[in-house]
Specification:
CATH topology of the largest domain: Nucleotidyltransferase, domain 5
CATH class of the largest domain: Alpha Beta
GO biological process, one term: DNA replication, removal of RNA primer
Order of helices and strands: HEEHEHHEEHHHHH
CATH superfamily of the largest domain: Ribonuclease H-like superfamily/Ribonuclease H
EC number: 3.1.26.4
Number of helices: 9
Binding site for a divalent metal cation: 27-28, 119
Number of strands: 5
Structural class: alpha/beta
Number of domains: 2
Main location: cytoplasm
Strand order of the largest sheet: 3-2-1-4-5
CATH architecture of the largest domain: 2-Layer Sandwich
Radius of gyration: 18 Å
Largest sheet: 5 strands, mixed
Pfam family, one: RNase_HII
Length: 233
């Protein structure tokens, strides 16, 4: 399906209205997974013409994503990854875990951004960062699209590595998201140390319900429900 390529429009607007010189794009992956970290990439690109084919990582084939991520890591001005572990997600709740991962990514950049473009409509980052939220920013903004592709490819690689140790769970293919293989392995073997134990998938596994942890922070259940009923890869 044809799609409009991303632009620097939002970044130019931020520069013009706030005086920001360094603008970072931030995107996350792994929010709806049952296993693995939530991963955030912060990227800085400047206003250069992006590599051909750049768009939201979800619109790209795995092969194209991987090839583009390799190009992007050499093309961006700077990028950094931040992660929140399954244990931190269980302890803090997803919103705070996202904030922690994003802060880790932003603080790992070699330069501190003056402003941040955050994919989506909710600002989970907050002070002290100057944030502009953009719905579908991973498709419309160059800097967010770049972060989207790098985050997705690098987290998938992490999960594939875990899949070598926990082959029955199919992490190489599902990256920790819901899938029939993943569910079957959970029913038979129970959660690994890399599973989120506050997630509602455990409600459907009577043998392992005793492992479920109560959420330490209130969270909207829509993400879990979506992750349980749909296979979002």
């Amino acid at each position: 399906m044809p799609y409009e390529p991303p632009t620097h429009s939002v970044e130019r607007s931020l520069r013009a209205t706030t005086g920001a010189k360094i603008v970072a794009g931030v995107d996350e992956v792994g929010r709806g997974a049952w296993a693995g970290p939530v991963t955030v990439c912060a990227a800085v690109t400047g206003l250069r013409r992006p590599p051909e084919g750049l768009t939201d990582s979800k619109l790209l084939t795995p092969k194209r994503r991987t090839a583009l991520a390799d190009v992007l890591e050499g093309w961006v001005t700077a990028h950094a990854l931040g992660h929140s572990s399954p244990q931190e997600i269980d302890e803090l709740g997803m919103t705070a875990a996202l904030r922690l991962a994003a802060t880790r990514a932003l603080e790992a950049l070699p330069v501190r951004p003056d402003a941040v473009i955050l994919d989506g409509k909710h600002d989970y980052l907050g002070d002290p960062w100057k944030v502009r939220t953009v719905i579908k920013g991973d498709q419309s903004c160059v800097v967010v699209a770049a972060a989207s592709v790098i985050a997705k490819v690098r987290r998938d690689a992490m999960m594939a590595e875990l899949g070598m140790e926990f082959a029955e769970f199919g992490f190489c293919d599902n990256a920790g998201y819901p899938s029939p293989v993943h569910r079957t392995a959970l029913e038979a073997l129970g959660p690994t140390p890399h599973h989120r134990l506050s997630w509602s998938y455990l409600d459907a596994l009577p043998r392992w319900q005793h492992l479920k942890r109560a959420r330490s922070a209130p969270e909207a259940l829509a993400l879990e429900a979506g992750g349980q009923l749909g296979f979002d890869f």
